[in-house]
Design brief:
Elements lengths: L14 H4 L3 H10 L7 E4 L6 H10 L3 E6 L4 H10 L8 E8 L2 E10 L13 E11 L5 E10 L8 H26 L11 H17 L6 H8 L3 H8 L13
Length: 248
Amino acid sequence: MLYPKKVGTLPGNDDTVKRTNEINTIIPMLDAINIQGKNITTDALLTQRKVATYLVEERHAHYHFTVKNNQPGLFQDIALYFDDREEPDFIICDPPDHGRIEIRKIWITTELNGYLKFPYVRQAFVIERESTTKKTGNVSHDIAYGITSQPPEQASPQKVLETNRGHWSIENSCHYIIDWNFDEDRSRIRTGYGPENVSRLRRFAVGLIKSKGVRSVSQKMQQLNRNIRAVFDFLRMTKNAMPCKLSH
């Protein structure tokens, strides 16, 4: 079994598959899964016309795509439409989690359906996230644009917002640690078995840190970075290893 970055597991043993990117592996991966009637969410890299057509026409599923500058025309059209947005269609305030308070707002429209040059668009949306760190009071803002093949009767603003949050909860828990700490998306290791081997080593390192009960992998990696003695103590690799306090 092969393990392409992020998208999951592919059947087959052809070495050429290992060297393909996410765009080329998403369809073979989904071919092995029953997705009829399901809503498939992806990040911006997979916001592709070919993928949209495959999902809706061939698999009778729906898509929920993030839109960024890898689709510049689509991104600019949606951003321009929502530039003068007023009252949001739905707002949710999440309870404090990990020392943060988050407010999410969504604006959604069907008016771009016939204008956007993208197959099966039934709604376009923009989501604004405001996060406040309770300890410092620092406020950060994030804006995300997207499209979905689900019409309003199947996906209300609240449901679209929940779907978007569900996607990023998976992204954060499964992939964000690798991308953020190892900058894996920009890795230039591309030949032979290099990408697969390095990816496995990265995941092994993260799993090893998590196995010690650490909540913040990023913080622990910073503490251990270029400090061999700290690594030995953390992993209890020597007889005189010092007790290592866990980071929470």
